[in-house]
């Protein structure tokens, strides 16, 4: 589902995005979003992550990586000074005001993968006002043909799953705790087969 979420996030704009920003690029959805954006031929892919994951995100073909612990990362502005046509927002806690200045002057879209009530209200306001810079809450409805195409990319080795850790089913609660801590890099796997330590 993470790869499908990333794909829907990248497709939510009004046309092909040239410059894409992925927040929390080292997370389960973010790692796929960076790879898919790069694979789709976007001109410039920027990802944000913590300092320990900078090399990982560069290795997934991001053109620019921002450490979210620095002033540049917090402002979502890198040394290139690029503005973005699309933002795949995989984190919580960023208000709309953080994104508006980094969107392209001609307009852009922020796809919020973790929408809250306030995000939905902002999105409705943007829609009603025909705003060029918009916040769009993600609505996901998986489709078999899309999943098959994405799995084909995995099988062909064009995108890869970054795995943080694996847990047997009997320790699934530990995997859940790790996920909720917000410090996983990539996906957390829970093996549903007979427990084997």
From TrEMBL:
Gene3D superfamilies referenced in this protein's UniProt entry, alphabetically: Medium-chain alcohol dehydrogenases, catalytic domain (3.90.180.10), NAD(P)-binding Rossmann-like Domain (3.40.50.720)
Highest taxon, organism lineage: Eukaryota
InterPro entries, alphabetized: Chloroplast_QOR, NAD(P)-bd_dom_sf
Pfam families referenced in this protein's UniProt entry, alphabetically: ADH_zinc_N_2 (PF13602)
Name of the protein: Enoyl reductase (ER) domain-containing protein
Organism: Lolium multiflorum (Italian ryegrass)
Native organism taxonomy: Eukaryota, Viridiplantae, Streptophyta, Embryophyta, Tracheophyta
